[in-house]
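Table S2 (continued). Query chain:
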Amino acid sequence: MRRFFTFVVTSLMAAPVFAEGFDRPIPQAQSATAEFWYAMACLALVAAMVLVQRLVARS
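Corresponding output:
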């Protein structure tokens, strides 16, 4: 009887009836401030790569 009770309880707990559907998150548009800081980060990355290339070329 104990095994039957355990089986019933675990079967009911794992039932997909209680699961909620997955709602995909909707991406938000970037603000002008975020685009500005992204552009600044890209320029900083390019400047750093140029400096590294010049440093490596000297060796």
